[in-house]
């Protein structure tokens, strides 16, 4: 139908033109005829004179042309329709054949066969990439090599020209089919060309129309082409038809930490729940903290591929929350008996229809939901001076957030001579320390600059911030404080950064760690409120934005009953809020109550855990003892056996910690803030606590904040932490 | 002896071990065990199993989640002398399921242990935690 429409659309102008021409000629002819009677008074003549005869001939010719055009159009349209019907019936018959195959764990590729459109990507299997042409000799029917990690089950359509159907009109059918979300065909474009994008530009041309006929038979594999490794599968080599879910009971937009935590929570509470995660990244859900810490300290040269990090005690784990086999193929989601979690990668949700309880993806397909979570996180902010500086500078700038950013920065750190990090917060300082550590080995100059007076200037009180800056310098980083960037240029092969106070820094590469812009793209279409103070979607204490819509993670500006409205950009908060959103999506109606914590390590000697509102503009009270060798992040993780500090709480069992005899050392003239506790006060109530090189005490800190009491003597409160012991 | 210093709005106190020897007189508010908002450990106040406990890792939510829940529930409510003796079928079902996903449930002697590899969970104050057993340990 739609093909007809498109065909008609194309032919319409032609028809119109020719019909206009016809009409005009006819009119002219008529007019001329009319006038003639006035002149000659002979009305009956059909071919009055030579001139009249020419006219008539002209009219006849044009009329014939119109007629011919009309007939052609009609026939093409009919032909389209017919081919379409054939295709549909073919596919329908294939769908029935497909299901038994999909149950088997496929680890081989399916040899080529018909069109791209009809491929399915079994989760654990590799992508079959085959295009079958018989007519075309250079038919690259390539079957993909075995298992690429099933990390790319689905990608957006990449090659419209690969679609077939009508000769000379390769593009049209794709477009038409896409909006057809209610038919199985609609799903073809999405999963199919996944593989296409891998295939080197395959120019599909007209001959493919014949393919539809061949589809009925066992497809022929043209594997004369070199690159392809044809693997004969035990499975019958019929292309599988993917049917993407049109409805997901639980729809999670965004595939990060918050989303994964919610998925887990939903599955735990609602048996047989079917959860669909849609992410525009290519990766399955993973955790971010190691990207700026542990992965840099790995000894493994292949770390950028494996993405596994070794924790201090030798235990290794991947940054991915779960291996691919944990997830269900989205195509299977509605059918699998006990439900599961499916991830659609490479898809962006562009529109949200709250009234209709559905979302629309970038490829036009629509998915309805019962409950929806928005966990879209954010994108790193860039600096205006860099954006305006031109391509030479922007291509030498990294905005660090994702796995790809880590991979590229890791590569860059091995090739360039100098890297400058702009930003003195968590990410900037952690990256600076990580790169600083490497700097000695690879001869890399690492610089860090920021407008504050010291590292973590917005978080730590000034004395501690200064102390931290010294530590960072000792990690091999040249720290420039109170540095405001005025402009950036590319000169003589170097990126030149000019500061407001006149200092000039020449470097090879810039890492901008200047904050995160929460992603609120769906606010307009979904009619969701955006917070003007903190950014992000405004939600209530139960993380709900509207009926059936929750928001969690970096993008959620929520009401914290104890501490007021806030938006938190930390890993543990993503986990806690994701879990809470999952609970509320399954009917719990609980407010944000369990305070999330965060942590940071600045090298192996300085680490801290914090909870609540930790803002350096608040008055603080710090209680310190001198650190012994036992008090380092290294020791803490060794004891608990995890690298992710928030997990160490879950796994610690009371009694594991053995008190040591730390020799009482009187405070020295130059204050050494080895370890201690810092309280952040608001109206004399403790709203935030930092545990400085003191570990495994977070539950006490959490309790103090939960109480919200006004304590007269904070030293007494500090005693609760036993800072002198391990 | 502790000493104290003020830097603008920030106060800094240095304390020795002796200073902190005396027990604290800071008062903490008593916890309400029935608080509906609080996170609970593995066992909820009413005796049910909290499947959302971070200590379980991904066990209740993975592909074998259903089997795990059945087996563990049976064990939990088992009144036999040897607890869980009547749940052999359930455990077998669970084990069969887990064998289909060797990547997720690496084959060990105790199929019950949750893999800590997959636990991104936040801290929880649970007393009855399953001893986490990491597949890649040992």
From TrEMBL, chain A:
Domain Protein MGARP N-terminal stretches: 50-156
CC per GO annotation: mitochondrial inner membrane; mitochondrial intermembrane space; nucleus; perinuclear region of cytoplasm
Subcellular location: Cytoplasm, Perinuclear region; Mitochondrion inner membrane; Mitochondrion intermembrane space; Nucleus
Location of region: Disordered: 93-193, 634-659
Keyword Metal-binding appears in the UniProt entry: no
Domain of life: Eukaryota
Domain FAD/NAD(P)-binding intervals: 251-577
Cited InterPro entries: AIF_C, FAD-oxidoreductase/Apoptosis, FAD/NAD-bd_sf, FAD/NAD-binding_dom, FAD/NAD-linked_Rdtase_dimer_sf, MGARP_N
Catalytic activity: A + NADH + H(+) = AH2 + NAD(+)
GO biological process, one term: apoptotic process
Transmembrane segments: 56-74
Keyword terms, alphabetized: Acetylation, Apoptosis, Cytoplasm, DNA-binding, FAD, Flavoprotein, Isopeptide bond, Membrane, Mitochondrion, Mitochondrion inner membrane, NAD, Nucleus, Oxidoreductase, Phosphoprotein, Transit peptide, Transmembrane, Transmembrane helix, Ubl conjugation
Requisite cofactors: FAD
Single annotated GO MF: NAD(P)H oxidase H2O2-forming activity
Record flagged with keyword Phosphoprotein: yes
Family the entry assigns: Belongs to the FAD-dependent oxidoreductase family.
Role summary: Functions both as NADH oxidoreductase and as regulator of apoptosis. In response to apoptotic stimuli, it is released from the mitochondrion intermembrane space into the cytosol and to the nucleus, where it functions as a proapoptotic factor in a caspase-independent pathway. Release into the cytoplasm is mediated upon binding to poly-ADP-ribose chains. The soluble form (AIFsol) found in the nucleus induces 'parthanatos' i.e. caspase-independent fragmentation of chromosomal DNA. Binds to DNA in a sequence-independent manner.
Protein name (database record): Apoptosis-inducing factor 1, mitochondrial
From TrEMBL, chain B:
Top-rank taxon, per record: Eukaryota
Molecular function (Gene Ontology), one example: protein-disulfide reductase activity
Name of protein: Mitochondrial intermembrane space import and assembly protein 40
Biological process per Gene Ontology, one example term: mitochondrial respiratory chain complex assembly
Stretches with biased composition (Low complexity): 113-127
Coiled-coil region: none
Lineage summary: Eukaryota, Metazoa, Chordata, Craniata, Vertebrata
This protein's record includes keyword Disulfide bond: yes
Alphabetical UniProt keywords: Disulfide bond, Mitochondrion, Oxidoreductase, Protein transport, Redox-active center, Translocation, Transport
Location in or out of the cell: Mitochondrion intermembrane space
PANTHER family listed in its UniProt record: COILED-COIL-HELIX-COILED-COIL-HELIX DOMAIN CONTAINING 4
Main location: mitochondrion
Region (Disordered): 100-138
GO cellular component: mitochondrial intermembrane space
């Amino acid at each position: 139908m739609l093909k007809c429409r498109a065909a008609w659309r194309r032919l319409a102008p032609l028809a119109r033109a020719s019909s206009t021409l016809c009409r005009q000629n006819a009119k002219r002819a008529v007019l001329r005829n009319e006038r003639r009677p006035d002149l000659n008074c002979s009305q009956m003549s059909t071919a009055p004179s030579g001139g009249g005869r020419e006219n008539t001939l002209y009219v006849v010719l044009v009329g014939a042309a119109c007629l011919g055009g009309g007939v052609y159009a009609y026939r093409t349209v009919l032909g389209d329709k017919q081919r379409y019907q054939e295709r549909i019936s073919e596919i329908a018959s294939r769908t029935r054949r497909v299901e038994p195959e999909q149950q088997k764990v496929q680890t081989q590729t399916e040899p080529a066969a018909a069109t791209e459109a009809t491929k399915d990507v079994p989760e654990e299997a590799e992508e079959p990439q085959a295009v079958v042409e018989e007519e075309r000799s250079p038919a690259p029917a390539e079957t993909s090599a075995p298992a690429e990690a099933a990390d790319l089950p689905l990608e957006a359509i990449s090659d419209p020209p690969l679609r077939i159907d009508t000769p000379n009109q390769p593009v049209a059918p794709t477009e038409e089919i896409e909006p057809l979300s209610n038919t199985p065909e609609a799903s073809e474009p999405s999963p199919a060309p996944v593989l296409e994008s891998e295939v080197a530009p395959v120019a599909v041309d007209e001959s493919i129309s014949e393919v539809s006929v061949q589809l009925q038979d066992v497809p022929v594999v043209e594997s004369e082409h070199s690159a392809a490794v044809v693997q004969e599968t035990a499975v019958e080599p019929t292309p599988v038809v993917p049917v993407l879910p049109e409805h997901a009971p639980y729809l999670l937009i965004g595939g990060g930490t918050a989303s994964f935590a919610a998925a887990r929570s939903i599955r735990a509470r609602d048996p047989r729940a079917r959860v669909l995660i849609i992410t525009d990244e290519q990766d399955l859900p993973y955790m971010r903290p190691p990207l700026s810490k542990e992965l840099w300290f790995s000894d493994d040269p292949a770390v950028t591929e494996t993405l596994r990090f070794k924790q201090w005690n030798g235990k290794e784990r991947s940054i991915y929350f779960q291996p691919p086999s944990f997830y269900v193929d989205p195509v299977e989601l509605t059918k699998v008996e006990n439900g599961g979690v499916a991830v659609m990668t490479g898809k962006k949700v562009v529109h949200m229809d709250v009234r209709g309880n559905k979302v629309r993806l970038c490829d036009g397909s629509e998915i309805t939901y019962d409950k929806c979570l928005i966990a879209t996180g954010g994108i790193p902010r860039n600096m205006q001076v860099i954006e305006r500086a031109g391509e030479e500078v922007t291509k030498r700038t990294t905005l660090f957030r994702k796995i790809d950013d880590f991979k590229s920065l890791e590569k860059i750190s091995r090739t360039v001579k100098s890297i400058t990090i702009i930003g003195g917060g968590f990410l900037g300082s952690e990256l600076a320390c990580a790169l600083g550590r490497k700097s000695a080995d690879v001869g890399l100059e690492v610089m860090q600059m920021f407008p504050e007076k010291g590292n973590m200037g917005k978080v730590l009180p000034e004395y501690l911030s200064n102390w931290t800056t010294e530590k960072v310098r000792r990690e091999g980083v040249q720290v420039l404080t109170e540095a405001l960037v005025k402009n950036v240029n590319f000169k003589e092969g170097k990126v030149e950064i000019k500061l407001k106070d006149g200092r000039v820094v020449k470097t090879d590469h810039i890492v901008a760690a200047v904050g995160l812009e929460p992603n609120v793209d769906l606010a307009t279409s979904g009619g969701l409120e955006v917070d003007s103070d903190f950014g992000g979607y405004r939600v209530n204490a139960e993380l709900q934005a509207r009926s059936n819509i929750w928001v969690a993670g970096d993008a959620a500006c929520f009401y914290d009953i104890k501490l007021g409205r806030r938006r938190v950009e930390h890993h543990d908060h993503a986990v806690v809020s994701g879990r809470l959103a999952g609970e509320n999506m399954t009917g719990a109606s609980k407010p944000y109550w369990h305070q999330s914590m965060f942590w940071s390590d600045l090298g192996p000697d300085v680490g801290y855990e914090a909870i609540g509102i930790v803002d350096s503009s608040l008055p603080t009270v710090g209680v310190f003892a001198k650190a012994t060798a036992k008090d380092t992040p290294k020791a803490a993780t060794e004891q608990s056996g995890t690298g992710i500090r928030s997990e160490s709480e879950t796994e610690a069992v009371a009694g594991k910690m053995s008190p040591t005899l730390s020799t009482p050392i009187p405070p020295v003239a130059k204050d050494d803030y080895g370890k201690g506790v810092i309280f952040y006060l608001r109206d004399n109530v403790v709203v935030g606590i930092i545990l400085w090189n003191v570990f495994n005490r977070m539950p006490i800190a959490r309790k103090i904040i939960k109480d919200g009491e006004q304590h007269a003597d904070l030293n007494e409160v500090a005693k609760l932490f036993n800072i002198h012991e391990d | 002896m502790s000493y104290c210093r003020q830097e603008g709005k920030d106060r800094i106190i240095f304390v020795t071990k002796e200073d902190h020897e005396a027990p604290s007189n800071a008062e903490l508010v008593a916890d309400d065990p029935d608080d509906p908002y609080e996170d609970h450990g593995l066992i909820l106040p009413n005796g049910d199993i909290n499947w959302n406990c971070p200590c379980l890792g991904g066990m209740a939510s993975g592909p074998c989640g259903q089997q795990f829940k059945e087996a563990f529930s049976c064990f939990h409510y088992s009144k036999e002398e040897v607890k869980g003796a009547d749940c052999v079928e359930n455990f077998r079902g669970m084990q069969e399921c887990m064998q289909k996903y060797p990547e997720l449930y690496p084959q060990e002697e105790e199929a019950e242990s949750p893999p800590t590899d997959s636990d991104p969970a936040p801290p929880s104050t649970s007393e009855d935690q399953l001893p986490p057993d990491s597949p890649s340990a040992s």
